[in-house]
Every structure is written in C-alpha cells, then in structure tokens.
Amino acid sequence: MNEKRTGRELLIRYIFLGAGLAIMAFGVAFSIKASLGTSPISSLPYVVSLFTPLTVGNLTILMHIFFILLQIFILGKDYQWIQLIQLPVAIVFGYLTDLAVWATSGITCTAYWQQWIVCLAGILLVGIGVSFEVTANVVVLAGEGVVLAVCRRFKLPFANMKIAFDVTLVVLSVILSLIFLHSLQGVREGTVAAALCVGLVARFFNSFFKKINIQKVFSALSGH
C-alpha cells in the first residue's frame, strides 16, 4: 500500500472497491440463476449451500476465513498482518452475495439460450468487479491472497498457480456434488466459460481504466 495516500484517497479507493464487490456479487447471483455452473471461486460455496442450511454468502465468508488462515500458515513470520483487512472485505462480499441472490430471485430461465444470456451477464459482471478490485489497489480478496502467498513462499509464477487453484476448487466442487447431491451441480459449461472469459473482461476494463488514468482521478478527488 502506498504510504503517501491520504485518508481521503483511501476512502475513495475503498468505496471503489465496495462498488466492485457489489458488481461481483451480482455476477455470482446471475451465474447461479443461469444454472449453467458458477465461476471456479464461487463453485465450492454454491455446491456446499445445496446440501447444508448455510447460504452461499455465509459459506463464501467461511471459505475466505479459511483462505486467510491458510495464508498465515504458508507465510508464517513473513505474513503481513495488514492483510487481515481481507476479513472485513470477505464479510461484506458474503453479505452482498446473499443480497444479490435475493434481488435476482425473480429471474427465471425457461430456455437454454436464456440461461446463456444470464450466464454471460454474470461473467461480464464478475469480470468488471474484478477490474474494480484490481484498480482500487488497496486489498485483494482472500482467494487471490492464497495464490500470492503460495507464489511468494515457493517462488512460483502467479498465472500457473492461479490455474491450479481454480482447478482445485472445481474438482472439490465436483467431488462434493457427486457425493452429497448424487449429481453434478454448480459445475457445468458456464464454469468453463467463466474460467476463460472473466480474465479477458477484467483485462479489457483494466485497460480502459488506464486509458482514462483512473489513478489520477482518485488523487484529484482526494484533493491532491
């Protein structure tokens, strides 16, 4: 984190991050409504929510808490305790997800093409939300934090570790779905589409934010 940032600029950046979390939460909700499979990071809490009394948002919070503890275990004394700010961010994201699921409860898809429209809308929203998170540049979600921790500890490339992390979550989701639901749920063609396209959407909006020099906008709004 840049120590030269004023409190006002940090507030603006956290508001921007909050907007990104809300957008991302609605992306998750749309992917759930499409019933074509959620994004890899959301697949595990969604599948577990189908055979437990906990909501997707509750399970998202618990998963992120586990990821935070995993970061502490992996990095040990090298863990930066400022990263515990991931916890309130995770809690906000979890409740926003439940709110988004409730807000989209009236959406129904009666045809396969309709499912794809809703699924693609979800992918677009998640990608935009990720871009907001990256552009805010204040804190990463705990899932990305785990990937970064492993990369730092074992000197591994981020891209490769991110793929391995996403694949692990999807495999766990498939296993739990087959064991407890006796069918494959939460992981379908939409999951593959999300894995391939969310990053592309985020990259596009990252480029857009760079073109309009959003970082200078943050500074200007903070009075710099």
Automatic annotation (TrEMBL):
This is Putative membrane protein YczE. The keyword Transmembrane applies. The chain crosses the membrane at residues 12-32, 44-69, 81-103, 115-142, 163-184, 190-209. Keywords: Membrane, Transmembrane, Transmembrane helix. The keyword Cell cycle does not apply. It comes from the Bacteria. Pfam families: DUF6198.
